[in-house]
Amino acid sequence: MVETKSTAGLRGIIAGSTAICVVGAGGDNLRYRGYDVEDLAEHAIFEEVAHLLLYGHLPTRTELDAYQKRLRSMRGLPQSLKDVLERIPADTHPMDVLRTGVSMLGTLEPEQDRSHQDETADRVLAAMPSILGYWYRFTKSGERVDTATPDKTIAGQVLRLLTGREPSDERRRFLEASLIVYAEHEFNASTFTARVIAGTLSDLHSCITGAIGALRGPLHGGANEAAMELIEKFHSPEQAVAGVKQMLAHKEKVMGFGHAVYKRRDPRNAILKRWSEKLSKGAADAHLFPVSEAIETFMWEEKKLFPNADFYCASAYHFAGIETPMFTPLFACARASGWCSHVKEQRADNKLIRPGAEYVGPEPRPFVTIENR
Ligand code: COA
């Protein structure tokens, strides 16, 4: 008999291969198809990175123009999807709106033929910000907004839909960086979910709907909203340190800290911290930046835990005028590019994903009829 041992949370288990992204190779690095995420976040726009992930190479200027045109042409939503969005209660979490919206899209435009998977992926990528923006504006002000905004980029479209204003160049550039940083992260929980669903030969909308569900939890994408809720409680760095000290004493987790793969630092954090600091200048609640830094220093000193991407992204989104419940949905709109790329990769060399389990239940025993129990 082969002896097997379970590993909680599959930590350290190589569950497949991928050419899309490497996390932590030779240190705490993150590269998309060989390119360092720092370089991409500094110089690229989100559509360039989505093209890289989905189609394997950085687009030329002509390819990028054509890709952006294609995605823009896919921003409109079918009337029956808008009808459904209008019926979703206003107090619903927008991650549930996204999950419902993508699922509904799958009923209206089902993926019948896998040979059109690129078109389906691009459509999902283009539709997600529209689903979010349409529902948000309708529930907030009753406005039936035209989701095909004049913005060339998804970053600009999202900012305009969620803030109702012409975005500044600084905010546009920040949003590009945040979407790039959130676009892909190897076999994280939501991407793995998408691959498991793809492995059964299911359709792309099912993969994305399942992935949105996995991303929603506070141990994964939901951490950025939880981090914001924490930071906002404090009015000074001293108060923050006292509050977090108490949390640790009660064995509570501080959301936005720690990582399952990175051990010393999350390479995405430096990018987002810089943006948070920059955007905090002149903000009414600029004190939230020093509050965040005080928590960072304390968590390192006390627990040797470092901020992950979600910690400073939270305050940066806040300073950019985005409401907290939209943080994780924005993460989802970005990660959809990674999810779709992994679905394509899984399909290209598919094997049903079906691990074993270490049995810890009762020994074999005889069945007892109901009268004799
Ligand atoms: N706050 C306080 N303590 C934390 C912590 C955090 N954010 N993250 C880990 N720890 C502690 C655990 O309590 C545990 O302590 P113990 O050994 O005394 O019980 C230890 O560190 C190991 O925690 P564990 O959850 O098993 O670590 P992991 O490496 O398997 O998990 C995360 C990684 C991301 C799940 C974990 O760090 C976490 O829950 N972070 C908060 C949620 C978050 O920010 N998620 C987004 C990730 S990008």
The CATH class of the domain at 223-319 is Mainly Alpha
Q: End-to-end span in angstroms? A: 34 Å
List segments where confidence is low: pLDDT < 50 over at least 5 consecutive residues: none
What fraction of residues sit in β-strands? Answer: under 5%
The small molecules bound here are: coenzyme A
Physical arrangement of strands within the biggest beta sheet: 1-2-3
Number of helices: 16
Query: Quick check: average pLDDT?
Result: 96
The tally of strands reads 3
What name does CATH use for the topology of the domain at 223-319? Cytochrome p450-Terp, domain 2
Note the overall shape.
globular
Class inferred from helices and paired strands: mainly alpha
Biggest sheet layout: 3 strands, antiparallel
What's the alpha carbon Rg, rounded to whole Å?
Answer: 22 Å
Which architecture name of the domain at 223-319 does CATH use? Orthogonal Bundle
What do you see in this structure?
Helices cover 57% and strands 2% of the residues. It has 373 residues and is mainly α. It has a domain of 97 residues: Cytochrome p450-Terp, domain 2 (Orthogonal Bundle), CATH 1.10.230. Helix 10 packs across helix 16. The two termini are 34 Å apart. Coenzyme A binds next to helix 15.
Salient structural properties:
Cytochrome p450-Terp, domain 2; mainly alpha; binds coenzyme A; 373 residues
In short:
The protein has 373 residues and is mostly helical.
